[in-house]
Write a structure and sequence with these properties.
There is one protein chain. It contains five helices and five strands, in the order βαβαβαβαβα. The chain is α/β, with parallel strands linked by helices. 45% of the residues lie in helices and 18% in strands. The protein has a single domain, classed as 3-Layer(aba) Sandwich (Rossmann fold). Strands 2-1-3-4-5 form a five-stranded parallel sheet, sandwiched between helices. The C terminus is likely disordered.
Length: 135
Protein backbone atom coordinates (compact mmCIF):
# COMPACT_ATOMS: atom_id res chain seq x y z
CA UNK A 1 0.00 0.00 0.00
CA UNK A 2 1.36 3.39 -1.01
CA UNK A 3 2.04 5.62 2.02
CA UNK A 4 1.37 9.32 1.45
CA UNK A 5 2.35 12.11 3.83
CA UNK A 6 -0.17 14.95 3.55
CA UNK A 7 1.19 18.23 4.92
CA UNK A 8 -1.82 20.54 5.18
CA UNK A 9 -2.78 23.11 7.83
CA UNK A 10 -6.43 23.57 6.80
CA UNK A 11 -8.53 21.07 8.74
CA UNK A 12 -11.30 20.82 6.11
CA UNK A 13 -8.81 20.21 3.28
CA UNK A 14 -6.88 17.74 5.43
CA UNK A 15 -9.97 15.73 6.36
CA UNK A 16 -11.42 15.73 2.84
CA UNK A 17 -8.16 14.68 1.17
CA UNK A 18 -7.37 12.06 3.81
CA UNK A 19 -10.77 10.39 3.39
CA UNK A 20 -10.73 10.53 -0.40
CA UNK A 21 -7.17 9.18 -0.69
CA UNK A 22 -7.92 6.40 1.82
CA UNK A 23 -10.94 5.37 -0.27
CA UNK A 24 -8.57 5.06 -3.24
CA UNK A 25 -6.44 2.62 -1.23
CA UNK A 26 -3.64 4.88 -0.02
CA UNK A 27 -2.34 4.95 3.54
CA UNK A 28 -2.32 8.60 4.62
CA UNK A 29 -0.32 10.14 7.43
CA UNK A 30 -0.91 13.80 8.25
CA UNK A 31 1.17 16.77 9.37
CA UNK A 32 -0.36 20.14 10.21
CA UNK A 33 2.67 22.36 9.60
CA UNK A 34 5.96 22.29 7.71
CA UNK A 35 8.13 21.41 10.70
CA UNK A 36 5.93 18.46 11.62
CA UNK A 37 5.97 17.46 7.94
CA UNK A 38 9.77 17.33 7.89
CA UNK A 39 9.85 15.31 11.12
CA UNK A 40 7.21 12.81 9.94
CA UNK A 41 8.90 12.41 6.55
CA UNK A 42 12.13 11.42 8.31
CA UNK A 43 10.38 9.13 10.84
CA UNK A 44 7.76 7.51 8.59
CA UNK A 45 9.60 7.37 5.24
CA UNK A 46 6.50 7.89 3.05
CA UNK A 47 6.43 6.92 -0.62
CA UNK A 48 5.19 10.38 -1.63
CA UNK A 49 4.53 13.78 -0.01
CA UNK A 50 1.67 16.16 -0.78
CA UNK A 51 2.96 19.53 0.47
CA UNK A 52 0.78 22.58 0.99
CA UNK A 53 3.05 25.56 0.39
CA UNK A 54 1.37 28.08 2.74
CA UNK A 55 2.00 26.51 6.13
CA UNK A 56 2.61 27.78 9.66
CA UNK A 57 5.85 27.27 11.61
CA UNK A 58 7.84 26.31 8.49
CA UNK A 59 6.35 27.02 5.06
CA UNK A 60 6.15 24.37 2.35
CA UNK A 61 8.89 25.99 0.27
CA UNK A 62 11.43 25.69 3.10
CA UNK A 63 10.18 22.27 4.25
CA UNK A 64 10.67 20.98 0.69
CA UNK A 65 14.20 22.43 0.51
CA UNK A 66 15.09 20.73 3.80
CA UNK A 67 13.68 17.36 2.69
CA UNK A 68 15.43 17.50 -0.70
CA UNK A 69 18.75 18.22 1.04
CA UNK A 70 18.55 15.24 3.41
CA UNK A 71 19.96 11.92 2.21
CA UNK A 72 17.12 9.91 3.76
CA UNK A 73 14.32 11.98 2.17
CA UNK A 74 15.72 13.50 -1.04
CA UNK A 75 14.34 10.77 -3.33
CA UNK A 76 10.76 11.02 -2.02
CA UNK A 77 8.58 12.70 -4.67
CA UNK A 78 6.92 15.90 -3.44
CA UNK A 79 3.83 17.35 -5.09
CA UNK A 80 3.18 20.99 -4.19
CA UNK A 81 -0.42 21.84 -3.35
CA UNK A 82 -1.26 25.51 -3.46
CA UNK A 83 -4.00 28.01 -4.05
CA UNK A 84 -1.32 30.17 -5.71
CA UNK A 85 -1.83 29.48 -9.40
CA UNK A 86 0.53 32.11 -10.79
CA UNK A 87 3.23 30.96 -13.21
CA UNK A 88 5.89 32.22 -10.83
CA UNK A 89 4.55 30.09 -8.00
CA UNK A 90 4.84 26.93 -10.09
CA UNK A 91 8.44 27.79 -10.94
CA UNK A 92 9.15 28.61 -7.28
CA UNK A 93 7.82 25.17 -6.28
CA UNK A 94 10.13 23.45 -8.77
CA UNK A 95 13.09 25.55 -7.60
CA UNK A 96 12.38 24.49 -4.00
CA UNK A 97 12.63 20.87 -5.13
CA UNK A 98 9.03 19.82 -5.77
CA UNK A 99 8.60 17.12 -8.38
CA UNK A 100 5.15 18.29 -9.46
CA UNK A 101 2.58 20.98 -8.74
CA UNK A 102 -1.20 20.99 -8.31
CA UNK A 103 -3.59 23.83 -7.59
CA UNK A 104 -6.40 24.14 -5.09
CA UNK A 105 -9.23 23.46 -5.06
CA UNK A 106 -8.06 19.89 -5.53
CA UNK A 107 -9.56 17.92 -8.38
CA UNK A 108 -9.06 14.35 -7.11
CA UNK A 109 -8.77 12.62 -10.49
CA UNK A 110 -6.08 15.08 -11.59
CA UNK A 111 -4.18 14.66 -8.30
CA UNK A 112 -4.40 10.84 -8.45
CA UNK A 113 -2.94 11.04 -11.98
CA UNK A 114 -0.02 13.08 -10.68
CA UNK A 115 0.53 10.66 -7.78
CA UNK A 116 0.55 7.69 -10.16
CA UNK A 117 2.92 9.46 -12.57
CA UNK A 118 5.33 10.33 -9.75
CA UNK A 119 5.41 6.71 -8.58
CA UNK A 120 5.94 5.44 -12.14
CA UNK A 121 8.94 7.76 -12.48
CA UNK A 122 10.40 6.39 -9.24
CA UNK A 123 10.00 2.82 -10.48
CA UNK A 124 11.43 3.62 -13.93
CA UNK A 125 14.48 5.27 -12.40
CA UNK A 126 14.97 2.34 -10.08
CA UNK A 127 15.44 4.90 -7.34
CA UNK A 128 14.09 4.11 -3.93
CA UNK A 129 13.62 6.23 -0.85
CA UNK A 130 16.93 5.11 0.63
CA UNK A 131 18.76 6.14 -2.54
CA UNK A 132 19.61 2.56 -3.50
CA UNK A 133 19.01 0.92 -6.86
CA UNK A 134 17.16 -2.31 -6.09
CA UNK A 135 16.22 -3.26 -9.67
Amino acid sequence: MLKILLVEDNELNRDMLTRRLARKGYQVIVAEDGQQGVELAIQQSPDLILMDMSLPVLDGWEATRILKNKLETKAIPIIALTAHAMAGDKEKAYQAGCDDFDTKPIELSRLIGKIELAMEKVMLKGAYKDGSDRA
